[in-house]
Design brief:
Shape of chain B: elongated
Mean pLDDT of chain A: 84
Mean pLDDT of chain B: 80
Low-confidence stretches of chain B: none
Strand content of chain A: under 5%
Structural class of chain A: mainly alpha
Distance between the termini of chain B: 47 Å
Order of helices and strands of chain B: HHHHHHHHHHHH
Largest sheet of chain B: none
Helix content of chain B: over 70%
Oligomer: heterodimer
Helix content of chain A: over 70%
Number of domains of chain B: 2
Largest sheet of chain A: none
Shape of chain A: elongated
Number of helices of chain A: 5
Number of strands of chain A: 0
Chain lengths: 124, 329
């Protein structure tokens, strides 16, 4: 039992580290912010959660294992939201954006409207 | 050309193949002396001088070419090689130092003296805290922790003095004038009222705040305490204000709240420590019971002090964020 646990942990942690490495390589390989975020997200979600899962399996008792699972849940909640915000900012502020991607005009109109509304609210 | 350049600026200029100062002055002197003299001389002399000048120009051009083709790459290579040598020397020195350090857990280690032995043996009995670290920083060394809290408080005060915008600041600061004239110039593009962030924040903020409270209140029982719990709660407040904006934050947290909370917390800390210093110095028995170790209401003043530190750290973290981002709480 102990050996199965150890092997599972080792495989999961090594796989997680491999995904982290792929993510780091992608961050340097790609040139555009959104592509880089896509590469970094691999390390952020899959890499770290595999590592954490490996640690949870090797945890001494059930309770600490569940705590580590909680960390994964927190990570999966926070990382996509932060990249969503980054991407919103990127779409709205990058002047050379059209060279890299096509943004639907409804999105842009929505962005402008939201920003204008917020500015009016803050002014009032 | 400025005269007072740093060593590195000059080194970089040299590496980037700029002429040296000596060469430049020599060249300038030559040009000055060569031109006006030509008229008062005999044709032979003029021809001789012209030949000499041409010769010099040729040599100069050859020198410049040599410098460009050979010397600059050589210098750059030497520079890189020296950099690598220096780094390797430093690494070797540090690694050598690591090998000389005493082994981990060595009983003859210089830090394993009677002080830490006493903390470990008598800590639980004297402070009532299961967590020895908390017992140390909030009981044996509480004066030091008071100083740390005061440093945080002072830093927040100074940041407020420097960056806080009020009605008067437009009279003194051009930055404040610019911000008043154009209030949304630097936050215009920030995502506002983002529905995804708001829904996530609704789930996460209460959990983060409760976790912070747990870490603060269990500081004497488990790893944690005022500083870490306060940092967690401050992060929760920052997430809230990022998602919902300052207008909603001001409904329960204003500058006045900040002032009151931090002042009351610091004063409580100082007064309770005054009491324990007074009783300790005069060998009077403290009336505050230590309780049973392991219970939530135990270890005397440590719980109170943890709560005070937690409040101070929370407020200071949020205050830093708000002041740096917007200029006001």
């Amino acid at each position: 039992m102990e050996w199965i646990r150890f092997c599972l942990t080792a495989v999961l942690v090594l796989a997680g580290l491999a995904f982290c490495c792929i993510g780091v390589y992608g961050v340097y390989r790609f040139k555009y912010a959104a592509n880089r975020m896509h590469a970094a997200a691999i390390g952020d979600t899959l890499g770290i959660s595999l590592c954490m899962l490996g640690l949870a399996i090797s945890a001494p008792d059930l309770f600490s294992g569940l705590k580590i699972v909680l960390v994964i849940v927190f990570w999966w909640l926070s990382s996509p939201v932060s990249s969503h915000l980054l991407c919103r900012l990127e779409i709205f502020t990058d002047e050379q954006r059209d060279e890299y991607m096509i943004v639907h005009r409804d999105t842009l109109a929505h962005e402008r409207e939201a920003a204008g509304k917020a500015a009016e609210e803050a002014q009032a | 050309m400025t005269k007072s350049k740093g060593v590195f600026a000059r080194l970089n200029a040299w590496l980037d193949d700029e002429q040296s100062a000596l060469e430049r002055t020599m060249e300038a002197a030559q040009e000055q002396s060569a031109a006006p003299d030509l008229e008062q001389r005999s044709p032979a002399e003029i021809r001789w001088a012209q030949e000499e000048l041409e010769e010099e120009r040729r040599i100069e051009a050859a020198m410049a070419q040599w410098a460009e083709k050979k010397a600059a790459p050589a210098a750059r290579r030497m520079y890189n090689a020296l950099c690598v040598c220096m780094c390797l020397t430093m690494i070797a020195l540090l690694l050598y130092t690591v090998t000389v350090l005493p082994a981990f857990g060595d009983p003859n280690h210089p830090i394993n003296n009677e002080v830490s032995a006493r903390y470990i043996e008598k800590g639980l009995q004297e402070t009532g805290a299961v967590n020895i670290v908390t017992g140390m920083i909030l009981d044996y060394r509480a004066f030091d922790t008071l100083g740390e809290s005061t440093v945080l408080f002072t830093a927040a005060m100074v940041v407020l003095f420097l960056l806080r915008k009020d009605k008067e600041s437009a009279r003194y600061s051009q930055l404040a004038q610019a911000m008043d004239a154009n209030p949304h110039s630097d936050t215009y593009y920030e995502p506002k009222n983002d529905i995804i962030l708001q829904k996530t924040a609704v789930i996460l903020v209460p959990i983060i705040l409760i976790l912070g409270v747990y870490v603060v209140l269990n500081g004497h029982l488990s790893p944690g305490g005022g500083f870490s719990g306060g940092a967690i709660m401050g992060a929760g407040l920052i997430l809230y204000v990022t998602a919902f904006g300052f207008a909603r934050m001001r409904r329960f947290f204003t500058y006045k709240t900040y002032q009151t909370v931090v002042l009351v917390a610091l004063l409580t800390y100082a007064l309770s420590k005054c009491y324990s210093f007074y009783t300790g110095a005069n060998h009077i028995e403290s009336v505050i019971p230590l309780g049973t170790p392991g219970a939530i209401l135990s270890s005397g003043l440590i719980l109170v002090l943890n709560i005070c530190v937690g409040f101070i750290v929370t407020c200071t973290m949020y205050c830093f964020y708000a002041v740096f981002r917007k200029g006001e709480l």
